[in-house]
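Course assignment 3, question 2. Fill in each field.
Student: A.L.
Task: Predict the tertiary structure for the chain below.
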Amino acid sequence: MAAGIGSRFGLGIKQLQTISPNGHIIIDYTIHDAIEAGFDRIIVIIRKDIKDDFMEVIGNRIEEVCAKHGVELLYAYQELQNLPEGYSCPEDRKKPWGTGHAVLACDGMIQGPFAVLNADDYYGKSAFRLIYDFLQDYDPQKPDAFAMAGFVLKNTLSDNGEVTRGICQADENGYLTDVVETRHIVKTEDGAEAEGVQLNMDSLASMNFWGLTPEYMDMLKAGFVEFLKQNEDMTKGEFLIPEHIGELVRNGKVSVRVLRTEDRWFGMTYKEDVETVREEFQKLFDQGVYTQDLFSDL
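Answer field:
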């Protein structure tokens, strides 16, 4: 998902910020890790107004990479006006309708079990392997069996400001029982807190990396309609995947396996994060996790 505006970022389109000396951006590494894990079809969700910039920075290059490795690359466009029948977008609404709405832009393009993730987040290689392996066991008789990459909270925080995380609760078998969308999380001297409440740094957090069945698209459509019905102010509000899936879990409609990963997340929420991300990628280069000539090892 690469259609978000990134209002807190302040340096233009955050998904297109280069983070390595060879001009690569985070999506390059996302696509590299997806191909390496075994994914053979990629849908990039963008807005039409950033298409030219996207193609110039990465699209043209990545199309060649995908073609070389037999991976199908498609584009879907998240548009404010793309709403169910009977609803219209207010003229003064500027912000997209949220991650759930973004995935709905892929309606008709989903052909099987699939993963969903953010374009401006680095997840690490293990999350891709865990989700891919889970999706290989897709059973059409179990359309409600989902998975989520669970990141340790302490590995997901920014040094440069507050973040929002879906704090997860799971049962003894590793299945999600609830996702609490927790806003205003900031680092403290002895951990992290949200609005004065101390948080368990070893809690698992959702970073919006899901393994889903094709049947979820129908659930998503119904959920979006319900969201629109309940949303009193159509100029605001977002239909978010963690909140939607959390509601499905609480109502006993789906099961979500939490796949724990110890990899450190990093991403660009604030402009100050850019240098931090570049430093983190340099560490990965130094450790041999990636080569400077990305994709040469596939």
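Instructor remarks: The first strand starts at residue 41 and ends at 46. The chain has seven helices and twelve strands.
Grade: pending
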